[in-house]
Design a protein that fits this description.
Elements lengths: L2 H14 L3 H9 L2 E11 L2 E14 L4 E5 L1 H13 L4 E4 L2 E2 L6 E4 L5 E3 L3 H7 L4 E2 L14 E8 L5 E2 L8 E8 L2 E2 L4 E4 L27 E7 L3 E11 L7 E6 L12
Parallel strand pairs: 2-8
Antiparallel strand pairs: 1-2, 1-4, 2-3, 2-10, 3-7, 4-5, 6-7, 9-11, 9-14, 12-13, 13-16, 14-15, 15-16
Length: 256
């Protein structure tokens, strides 16, 4: 058996044994949803759109990270709806009014307070080594996560919403200066009991702004935050595109 085949078999065994739960926890602990909604009728609100955000401490304090197009969609909706309310998790605040920086690639950084972090109920991902992170190796493993929108678009603020945390693992299939890609091959998927795969062509759009981590080995296996999910451009070709997290500076500004 080749070394590549041995690595693949070992990866399958670890996923089936539940080791992937450790990685899912690492991603979900720092991640939440962003949604904005308007008054529908009575006390009901209607979701206009949503995305994902995560929180990072790269060495000089904690800030929020999402995709720049998520913020752009929020700003566009505010021009159309005077009664629009934005939430980050269960915390009512508008990240478009807290921007530290955003770039043309698709990364936006916003300010968040310690009390808001507690209200949201997440912890920042703290860079375990000097920032910026290394560039991931093409063909090596990665994992990501984020939130799809609730199945019900109308809700009351006091209601519990059925947010679905979605995640995935796979090789990082493209490493470029401006983006990282992960192409999914269904014939290679590992399905665990109780974790059915999404149907072919399923929408993953709400995950925009979520984190992408890459696995490294030197010689111990460890993971680093390497990307910000930007898009799933086609339902026919199951491909995820992320923007390199190394463009984010320690103070939350973003390099060109």
């Amino acid at each position: 058996m080749s070394q590549a085949s041995e690595n693949e078999e070992e990866g399958r065994r670890l996923i089936e044994a539940g080791f992937s739960d450790v990685l899912v926890e690492a991603a979900s602990r720092c991640t939440t949803w962003i949604l904005w909604h308007v008054r529908a009728s009575g006390s009901e609100r209607e979701i206009v759109n949503n995305g994902t955000a995560f929180f990072l401490n790269a060495g000089k304090g904690t800030f929020g990270v999402t995709a720049a197009h998520v913020v752009a969609e929020l700003e566009k909706a505010k021009l159309c709806h005077s009664d629009l309310i934005c939430q980050v998790g269960h915390c009512l605040f508008d990240p478009s009014e807290r921007l530290i920086d955003r770039d043309s690639l698709d990364i936006a950084i916003f300010r968040v307070t310690t009390s808001e972090m507690h209200e949201i109920g997440v912890d920042p991902h703290v860079a375990p080594a000097p920032w910026p992170p290394p560039t991931p190796q093409q063909g090596k493993g990665g994992f990501f996560g984020g939130y799809l929108g609730p199945s019900k678009k109308r809700f009351r603020l006091e209601d519990t919403q059925d947010w679905s945390y979605q995640y995935g693992f796979g090789p990082i299939t493209g490493v470029f200066d401006h983006q990282l890609t992960m192409r999914f091959q269904r014939e290679d998927w590992v399905v665990r009991p109780g974790h059915p795969p999404p149907s072919p062509g399923a929408a993953w759009g709400g995950l925009s702004g979520g984190p992408l981590f890459a696995l490294f080995e030197n010689p111990v296996v460890y993971w680093r935050l390497v990307g910000v999910i930007s898009e799933f451009p086609s339902r026919d070709i199951e491909l995820m595109i992320a923007k390199p997290a190394r463009r984010i500076r320690q103070d939350g500004s973003v390099s060109a």
